[in-house]
Amino acid sequence: MPIKIDPKLTAQRLLPKIERLxxxxxxxxxxxxKSWSPTHGAPVFTVKGRYTxxxxxxxxxxxxxxxALLQFDATGDPRFLNxxxxxxxxxxxxxxxxxxxxxxxxxxxxxxxxxxxxxxxGKIPANAAEKNFLELALKVSGAVQAARWTRLADGTGFIPSxxxxxxxxxxxxxxxxxxxIAHQLGHALMGEQDERISLLGxxxxxxxxxxxxxxxxxxxxxxxxxxxxxxxxxVFNITNGVFRCPNSQQGWSPFTTWTRGLxxxxxxFAEQLEYFATLGxxxxxxxxxxxxxxxxxxxxxxxxxxxxGFTFVELCRRAALATADFYLANCCADGIPxxxxxxxxxxxxxxxxxxxxxxxxxxWEPVDSSAAAIAAQGLIRLGNHLLGIATSSRPGRKxxxxxxxxxxxxxxxxxxxxxxLTLASTLFSEPYLATGPKHQGLILHSVYHRPxxxxxxxxxxxxPNGESSMWGDYHARELALLLLCEANHGPYPxxxxxxx
Length: 500
Description:
There is one protein chain. The protein is globular and about 60 Å long. It is built from 15 helices and nine strands. The protein has helices at residues 15-35, 61-75, 78-91, 93-96, 104-107, 112-120, 128-147, 176-184, 199-213, 259-279, 281-288, 312-330, 369-392, 399-427, 470-487, and strands spanning 45-47, 50-52, 150-151, 157-158, 167-169, 189-190, 196-197, 233-237, 242-247. Strands 5-8-9 form a three-stranded antiparallel β-sheet, with no helix packed on it. A two-stranded antiparallel ribbon has the order 1-2. Strands 3-4 form a two-stranded antiparallel ribbon. The chain has a single domain (15-487), classed as Glycosyltransferase. Strand 8 and strand 9 form a beta hairpin. By secondary structure, it is mostly helical.
């Protein structure tokens, strides 16, 4: 395994780095707020250290105001609560009703959802009017996102990307949070002739098809089937609802792995597993029973002839483990990945580059720190989930076998947790932490769209480096907050409301 996991790291040991990160973060949020004009749209990524917009979709607006809310959560500074709350009220309403994107979990859960969480946790005063406002926005957001639907031949379906009804993005897995919250709040999507459509049902079907079509399991699906590899996009024939081929919009090819898409899968499946654990069998069984549990691959074959089939949660756990293992096997020794596992100039890097810390200043291919920030949180949440199962499992008829299973789960859980902590330690240090006062970004060496050439290449450099992104900065703050809460024995942050 290329990553060199530090077995001694704990959230408490990372506190000095976390506190430094939030100290720098405060200055950068305030500086961006002072210089940014809403007429520019949403800030997306930096060029020469200053945030700029990119008129593709406004999928990063929620990260801008959500970052302020995370900063308030971490520090208690009311300036950031006011900034995040004002931005949410003034700028986010159109994102709630946006029918043209798959980004509701990014934009609306990061803003309305964070405010809702802060109120649930008692970190801001309970206010019935504000609570109703937040919950209405979250209900509508979940329903609008679920209404964006492509039906497949087997009766399932998925939330298509902004590319069109044929397009399933792996990224959208994290937008399922909007459906989960709305379902938890008792909401449903109302269709033609008052058809009541379960938001949990659509969440389950989308997650199912992400696990089936976006994630590989090393079982011969195609000539490039490696366990844990992820295709950014799955393409379907919308006339008959049949899978056609993998594709990639932001990666090198359909048959390599764009590492930010991989990271979305690691975190998306881990978060949903946390959510499913709170539901119990009843609600999931009610929506999962009609699904095709034979788990037919896009090639038309069984995933594994030795297995009788999977429950839905087992399938999601299988996808989470596969993608987490692939990430850890394909990142550099410090946990930072290259932007794509098959990028064309990787063979030009000296030696076995995976056995060394990533070099963001190499002249051949860029790294992507934003993928590391996303994956780190996913690894920690997945590790916590597995450790929770290992602790709560009870022996059945074969206690020795059950004990071995618990031991395996606990070992996996510890490994993923320590790997996530190792990534966090790397990201929260130079050369990734942006310590310069003039740079508006927080985490350096993020890449947006390498194939389109959108990323800034500085004079004297051959590939993009030294720049930041709104999603990379936001997810680094989210990661730091998760660890800060653990170190300080605070509430465990979840997008959903944990059961009483």
